[in-house]
Design goal:
Layout: H1 2-30, E1 32-44, E2 47-56, E3 59-64, H2 66-70, E4 78-81, E5 86-87, H3 98-106, E6 123-124, E7 127-128, E8 132-133, E9 136-137
Parallel strand pairs: 1-4, 1-5
Antiparallel strand pairs: 1-2, 2-3, 6-9, 7-8
């Protein structure tokens, strides 16, 4: 009896695995898009632009002409007409102005913290073991 139960249990797990695998494949197919009638940047020197791109599950699966690209997806794929606009797949613009950003990192931020110059701490020279002093900003002076 235990052997038969174990066999049925194994078949049940196998069937559940197959159903899960099939449903994930169908789910991935449902997440298909074709962007067409566009100027799509490819970064390939021989063919720098294409007119269509197909995406499945967040990944590019085909790039080229609209007829070529539509063959690579199912008939239920969402089709988006870009009306001649440009598309840069994978390009994320963080929009960093390097020089301004660098200057901002080295500048003192006293906004909303200091109401007047008198409120700024004065530099002092704390004593370091061995008799030397080092400059620091503090309200207390450790060196004479």
């Amino acid at each position: 009896m235990g052997r038969v139960f174990g066999r049925y249990l194994g078949l049940l797990f196998f069937a559940a695995f197959i159903v899960l695998l099939a449903s994930s494949a169908l789910w991935a197919q449902g997440d298909e898009r074709v962007f067409f009638h566009a100027k799509i940047f490819t970064a390939v020197p021989e063919h720098p632009y294409a007119e269509a791109v197909a995406i499945r599950g967040g990944r590019i699966v085909a790039v080229g002409s609209t007829p070529e690209v539509t063959k690579s997806v199912s008939a239920t794929a969402e089709r988006i007409d870009l009306d001649g606009k440009s598309l840069f797949p994978g390009f994320i613009d963080s929009h960093s102005h390097s020089i301004d950003g660098g200057l901002g990192l080295i500048a003192a931020d006293a906004t909303d913290k200091v109401s007047s110059l008198d409120a700024l701490p004065s530099p002092t020279m704390p004593k370091i073991p061995g008799g030397a002093c080092a400059a620091t900003f503090s309200k207390f002076s450790a060196c004479p």
